[in-house]
């Protein structure tokens, strides 16, 4: 056991528990060792002695040979030699321990020890027993008394391992127990056995007795075998030499994370597991492929796969991204340049088995793939029909056919200075460019997959060399494409569109070729900062410096400039929008990821030079560039990319920045018509796309990116009239969404009117023009934000000034509906706040008022129903205009206006002091009204009562004029009786119209005009009574009796009313004598 001193604080890169819970170790007494410093490989003093020949030999043997092979090779191994082999068999690199311990989830020789967690305020000190088995510099098994089960090692195993690496001289070495037993005589052996039995007699005694009986029996099986097993004697020759990995825990945790469906951070945990696989591959640890196999098995066993397939629904985006990463990892694994053929055959068999399963996800969701095979050096011009289904493993299966034996490829990755001889540089060559640098003419994503595989398996220098060769190839292709375009330019520009495009875009590709090249190149330029630990906050952005390209004839070229160049080439590639929601979404997401990486680069002179050069080439590359003058109608838009280019170029070359951004503003898929295009010319990576109606599922996102680009340009162009005008024209030409143009107008308005400085009138005018365009676009369509848009436009025009307000008032019919023009626009323009805001003098106020009145009259003529009242209000201060508006109302009253509209205007007229006009309008409203006998809660009842009250107040003549209209329109008895009662309570003519005499007497119901109203009311009660009795139920009897009581009050207003009512009751008794209970109630109340 290891006991004694406490260990020093653990290495800062390890993800160990916080200081209060950090385990400590009690090591064993010091044993034989090489002296200070040997375990970590660091000198403990200024001078260091060379290793002995014994240590050199033991180190080599311990790393490569199983201990059984050593024993077979040599009959007797001296004890000092054995000790040195055991000593060097333990892992020597702390990074290897970190790899198996830093997962953020929380030699046949053995290393036992105790690890203590110090006491805290809440928990006492805890000691754990730890045992580690190791062989050939790998930990092959671990056990710990803490009981924590996880994929990787617990903190206590890590602590003991690091202690052994850092302080090997303080850990006592023990030889295999068989070697110790060999040194004992008979008495010592008997004593050892008896003491062992005594110490553990309940556990050991039965086994000891059984073994003793077998040994004493000459015919037993145990006596047929020479020697005896020794669990401490190291690994056998046949044992796999790999790091300890708890396969059951891998399966269990992956299954658990998948069952959480992306919640509780499970997606992040699975990505961490993928990162761990990449880390293992980079360390060339065989557990990388082993762990990926375990993960894949659990992914394929996910019950949601069959559920999604049965329901015909797609998996979530997060889950889809995990499957993509899984497929990409398998491509890396099978492309291991030094894997054995039997390993690759095993992987191929397994991948095909997974791919043949019905539930295996397809490469591009529910859509069949149109992408060329990974092993094709050149995509075919015509798509093959009836292609087999492509799953997420198809590319890995195809990658199994790739090899690394090509002599040209071997020379590229093995030397920085591989070039063609100078005398061979004339003419065309498929292997070298005109400068003699090597090319690698492969299908670009496939070539980049090779780079990713080299980098992933720890061959970073080789990956860099191949990446440079690929970029030189892309450069040459770009130059040749520009040469082709020069010969076609005139013809293409005349047609204005092309059918030539790339079927397979590099951005959004399952293998992420551009991202792979960028990361490979920038990785070697990254400045490592030891202080950039993960402290729980936001990670610091990486810092890069220029590293010259090895072997490059151009001394000014660095891997950083190459990274920028290839990212620009890939982003600027003219390519067809793929089919399917997920594939299109992946294009957008990958674009944003690459742009985010580009934004981490601090642009210096070298990078700006590269940026400008590539931007110019993309603008001049015609149909081969997404920024060329002519592109395919369904080409992926360049808005996100151009926004980055614009922002990056603006401080250095504003003209080029605007040229790029303005060129990228187009979105041809939304144009109403497109030409037939040219026939296309076959060359590398180019194909003809058949005409089809596009299904762009991400169109909303693309349009918003187009809007962001335009907004960025508007912000930058503030104060520059010429540039603002150019940007405005581009917006008006290319943006087809009214809501996005409105957003741009709002953005421009906000930028133009800062709180702490005067407004920018040029940008304000741009905002106004955009707002006017929105008004025209949404005038005849439904838009839930229309009211907000109209109010904003008036606000914007107010900021611009008087002339803008006059303009929108005069041209209202092209911008607003009549209702909007009168109720919002003119009303706001004529408000007191607007007058104060503009500081208008009297002539200006009159000009604005005149325009508003003209608008009001025009709107009233066009839509009197909705605009008449607003027109009257706006024209109040001008007699002629007011009279004109009133006449428009009178003319429209008999045709298109409803009683409610007329009543509203009539009330307005009364309120403004025009009672006779109000009476006339109320009378017109009554002609449109029809109130049935049972509509005693109709909303127009108040208007009818008001109209009758108005007529009564004006005089007998007006009352006599409106009563026939009331009788004709109102058939509800209770309403008529209410009107009759009000008319009899006071004398008519109380309004006091000048020049008119009023008698001041109450009106009689026996004389006109009230006699007509009384007769109509009695008749209405009789009709209503019969109607109610037709379908009356017992629960309404009481209500009916009260109704008859009100009817009697009305009957009694007539001279012979009591006789009429009595006859009426008698008739009811006779007609409805079958309703005995009801008639009994009638007799009780009315006799």
What key phrases describe this protein's structure?
1087 residues; mainly alpha; four-stranded antiparallel β-sheet; two-stranded antiparallel sheet; 44 helices; 6 strands; zinc
Annotation field: number of helices: 44
Helix proportion of residues, in percent?
40-55%
Mean pLDDT comes to 80
Widest beta sheet: strand line-up: 1-2-3-4
- Please state the overall shape, judged from the principal axes of the Cα atoms: elongated
Give the N-to-C terminal Cα separation.
118 Å
Poorly predicted residue ranges: 1-46, 102-110, 367-385, 531-536, 673-693
Indicate the proportion of strand residues. under 5%
**Which structural class matches the secondary elements?**
mainly alpha
Please give the number of β-strands. Answer: 6
Major pleated sheet: 4 strands, antiparallel
Radius of gyration: 47 Å
Keywords: Metal-binding, Zinc, Zinc-finger
Region (Disordered): 1-48
GO cellular component, one term: Cul2-RING ubiquitin ligase complex
Protein name: Zinc finger, SWIM-type containing 5
Polypeptide structure, described:
With 1087 residues, this protein is mostly helical. It has 44 helices and 6 strands. It has a 4-stranded antiparallel beta sheet with strand order 1-2-3-4, with helices on one face. The protein has a two-stranded antiparallel ribbon with strand order 5-6. Strand 2 (109-117) and strand 3 form a beta hairpin. Helix 1 (53-64) crosses helix 3 (79-88) and helix 19 runs antiparallel to helix 20. It is elongated, with a radius of gyration of 47 Å. It starts with 23 loop residues before the first strand and ends with a helix. 40% of the residues are buried. One of its GO terms (molecular function) is zinc ion binding. One of its GO terms (cellular component) is Cul2-RING ubiquitin ligase complex. It comes from Amphiprion ocellaris. InterPro entries: ZSWIM4-8_C. This is Zinc finger, SWIM-type containing 5.
């Amino acid at each position: 056991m290891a006991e004694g001193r406490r260990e020093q604080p653990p290495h800062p890169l390890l993800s160990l528990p916080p200081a209060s819970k950090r385990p400590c170790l009690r090591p064993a007494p010091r044993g034989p060792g090489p002296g200070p410093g040997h375990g970590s490989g660091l000198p403990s003093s200024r001078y260091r002695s060379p290793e002995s020949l014994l240590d050199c030999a033991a180190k080599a043997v311990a790393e490569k040979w199983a201990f059984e092979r050593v024993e077979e090779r040599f009959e007797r191994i001296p004890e000092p030699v054995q000790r040195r082999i055991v000593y060097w068999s333990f892992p020597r690199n702390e990074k290897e321990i970190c790899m198996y311990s830093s997962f953020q989830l929380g030699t046949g020789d053995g290393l036992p020890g105790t690890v203590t967690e110090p006491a805290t305020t809440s928990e006492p000190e805890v000691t754990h027993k730890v045992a580690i088995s190791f062989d050939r510099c790998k930990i092959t098994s671990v056990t710990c008394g803490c009981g924590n089960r996880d994929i990787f090692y617990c903190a206590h195993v890590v602590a003991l391992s690091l202690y052994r690496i850092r302080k090997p001289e303080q850990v006592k070495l023990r030889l295999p127990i068989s070697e110790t037993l060999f040194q004992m005589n008979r008495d010592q052996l008997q004593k050892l056995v008896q003491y062992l039995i005594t110490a553990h007699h309940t556990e050991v005694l039965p086994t000891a007795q059984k073994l003793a009986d077998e040994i004493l029996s000459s015919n037993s099986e145990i006596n047929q075998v020479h020697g005896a097993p020794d669990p401490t004697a190291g690994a056998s020759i046949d044992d796999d030499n790999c790091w300890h990995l708890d396969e059951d825990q891998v399966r269990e945790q992956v299954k658990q994370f998948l069952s959480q469906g992306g919640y509780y951070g499970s997606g992040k945990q699975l990505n961490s597991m993928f990162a761990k696989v990449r880390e293992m591959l980079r360390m060339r640890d065989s557990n990388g492929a082993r762990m990926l196999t375990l993960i894949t098995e659990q992914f394929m066993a996910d019950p949601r796969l069959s559920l999604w397939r049965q329901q015909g629904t797609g998996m979530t985006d997060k889950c889809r991204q995990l499957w993509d990463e899984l497929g990409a990892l398998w491509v890396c694994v099978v492309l291991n340049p030094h894997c054995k053929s039997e390993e690759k055959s095993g992987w191929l068999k397994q991948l095909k088995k997974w791919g043949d399963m019905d539930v295996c996800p397809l490469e591009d969701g529910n859509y069949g793939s149109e992408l060329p095979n990974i092993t094709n050096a050149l995509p075919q011009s015509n798509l093959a029909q009836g292609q087999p289904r492509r799953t997420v493993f198809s590319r890995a299966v195809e990658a199994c056919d790739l090899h690394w034996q090509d002599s040209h490829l071997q020379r590229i990755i093995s030397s920085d200075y591989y070039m063609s001889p100078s005398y061979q540089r004339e003419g065309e060559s498929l292997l070298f460019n005109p400068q003699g640098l090597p090319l690698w003419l492969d299908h670009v994503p496939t070539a980049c997959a090779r780079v990713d595989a080299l980098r992933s398996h720890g061959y970073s220098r080789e990956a860099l060399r191949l990446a440079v060769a690929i970029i030189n190839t892309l450069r040459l292709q770009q130059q040749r494409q520009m040469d082709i375009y020069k010969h076609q330019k005139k013809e293409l520009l005349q047609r204005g569109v092309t059918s030539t495009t790339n079927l397979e875009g590099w951005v959004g590709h399952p293998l992420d070729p551009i991202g792979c090249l960028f990361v490979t190149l920038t990785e070697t330029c990254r400045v490592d900062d030891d202080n950039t630990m993960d402290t729980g906050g936001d990670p610091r952005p990486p810092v890069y410096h220029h590293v010259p390209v090895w072997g490059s004839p151009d001394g000014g070229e660095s891997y950083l400039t190459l990274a920028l160049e290839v990212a620009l080439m890939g982003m600027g590639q003219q390519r067809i929008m793929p089919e399917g929601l997920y594939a299109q979404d992946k294009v957008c997401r990958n674009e944003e990821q690459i742009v985010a990486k580009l934004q981490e680069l601090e642009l210096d002179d070298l990078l700006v030079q590269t940026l400008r050069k590539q931007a110019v080439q993309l603008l001049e590359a015609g149909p081969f560039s997404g920024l060329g003058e002519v592109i395919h109608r369904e080409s992926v838009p360049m808005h996100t990319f151009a926004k980055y280019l614009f922002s990056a170029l603006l401080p250095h070359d504003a003209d080029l920045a605007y040229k790029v951004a303005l060129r990228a503003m187009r979105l041809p898929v939304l144009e109403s018509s497109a030409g037939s295009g040219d026939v296309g010319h076959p060359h590398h990576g180019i194909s003809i796309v058949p005409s089809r109606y596009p299904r762009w599922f991400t169109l909303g996102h693309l349009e918003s990116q187009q809007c962001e680009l335009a907004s960025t340009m508007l912000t930058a162009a503030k104060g520059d009239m010429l540039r603002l005008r150019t940007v405005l024209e581009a917006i008006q030409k290319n943006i087809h969404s009214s809501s996005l143009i409105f957003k741009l107008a709002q953005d421009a308005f906000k930028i133009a009117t800062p709180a702490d400085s005067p407004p920018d009138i040029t940008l304000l005018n741009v905002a106004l023009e955009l707002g006017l365009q929105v008004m025209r676009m949404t005038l005849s369509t439904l838009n839930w934000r229309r009211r907000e848009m109209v109010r904003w436009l008036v606000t914007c025009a107010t900021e611009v000034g008087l002339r803008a307000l006059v303009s929108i008032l005069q041209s209202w019919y092209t911008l607003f509906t009549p209702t909007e023009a009168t109720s919002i626009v003119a009303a706001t323009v004529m408000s007191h706040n607007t007058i104060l805001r503009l500081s208008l003098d009297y002539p200006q106020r009159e000009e604005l008022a005149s325009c508003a009145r003209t608008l009001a009259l025009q709107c009233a003529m066009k839509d009197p129903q909705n605009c008449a009242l607003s027109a009257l209000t706006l024209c109040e201060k001008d007699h002629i205009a007011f009279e004109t508006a009133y006449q428009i109302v009178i003319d429209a009253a008999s045709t298109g206006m409803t009683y409610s509209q007329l009543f509203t205007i009539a009330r307005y007229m009364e309120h403004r002091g025009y009672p006779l006009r109000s009476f006339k309008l109320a009378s017109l409203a009554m002609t449109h009204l029809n109130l049935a006998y049972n509509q005693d809660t109709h909303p127009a009842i108040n208007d009818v009562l008001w109209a009758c009250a108005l007529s009564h107040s004006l005089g007998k003549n007006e009352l006599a004029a409106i009563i026939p209209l009331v009788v004709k329109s109102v058939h509800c008895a209770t309403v008529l009786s209410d009107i009759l009662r009000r008319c009899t309570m006071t004398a008519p003519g109380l309004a006091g119209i000048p020049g008119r005499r009023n008698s001041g007497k109450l009106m009689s119901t026996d004389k006109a005009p009230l006699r007509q109203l009384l007769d109509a009311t009695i008749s209405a009660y009789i009709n209503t009574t019969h109607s109610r009795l037709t379908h009356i139920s017992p629960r309404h009897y009481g209500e009916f009796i009260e109704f008859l009581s009100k009817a009697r009050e009305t009957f009694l207003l007539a001279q012979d009313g009591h006789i009429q009512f009595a006859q009426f009751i008698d008739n009811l008794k006779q007609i409805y004598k079958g309703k005995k209970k009801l008639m009994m109630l009638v007799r009780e109340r009315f006799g």
